[in-house]
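Readers of this paper often ask what the protein records in our data store actually look like. Such a record has a labelled line for the sequence and another for the backbone structure tokens. The tokens are whole numbers drawn from a learned vocabulary of local backbone shapes. We quote a single record here, exactly as it is kept in our systems:
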Amino acid sequence: MNTPAPKEAVIKMYESRADIHPREVKGRFAALRWAFVWLTQLLFYGVPWLVVNGRQAVLFDLEARKFHLFGLTLWPQDFIYLAALLIICAYGLFLVTAVAGRIWCGYACPQTVYTEIFLWIERRLEGNRSARIRLDRQPWNAEKIARRGSKHLAWGLVALWTGFTFVGYFTPIRVLGDEALRFALGPWEAFWVLFYACATYENAGWLREQVCKYMCPYARFQSAMFDRDTLIVSYDLVRGEPRGVAKSAGAATAKGDCIDCSMCVQVCPTGIDIRQGLQYECIGCAACIDACDSVMDKVGKPRGLVRYSTQTALEERWSGAHIRQRILRPR
């Protein structure tokens, strides 16, 4: 009797990516994120146009080997000051991370900032989260082509302006603008404008959370800077569990404050569930805090089920004042 050969089993080493469509959220931390978007982009796009002493305020003239910073001219032999500045910035980042977690990632990182801008464009042209999911599922038609096409066109324009501004720090931006209007950009200028534009378009438009989760090394070594008194986005397990909506007055005592609405997951730009505890994918943006606070307001429960806290503070039930006292610690 011939025994049929067993079928081969295919084992995938990598999980396929699931599209993440973060829900728009409003609140104090969302407003703070947008304040940083405005601040960083006004500086980035505006500084090259400033003039000091008849010269562009910030210009890294590689050909002449001169670096102009608001009236100060540095030469290659002055790079020791740049090295010292970079060391100070690195230690500053380590200190901030040890105290307050990944707030740099959540508010001021270029990847976060440009993703916020691209998401804003996507929401304006494709609709809210539900509309975008429906658009993904529907077959290609005139409406889908128009919405997707206009979105990618807007992304491309923002990316090109970003690449143009970046190169404007190395070539006088007014000269660069004149060359661009006459379609007379040099080969290297054109290359770097397009390169930086493509990087912005791909990272902020397509890769998004993949950059934070897999490409950025900061997510991997952050655990070396965290301790149990580092401020992180935390879910209050004691207060929230067991999850669910109380069906009657008698069942109210058997349920925690978390109604299991999944709003914290829907607004997360990296698609994690903060209720599962600290995860390296969390960028500390606090979108889940704003979402949870709005839900708590609707169901008549106190805010702070998801909040900035520390592991020790959650276990010991510390107050905010006690947490602040632990900022100055031996670590």
In short: Residues 28-221 form one domain.
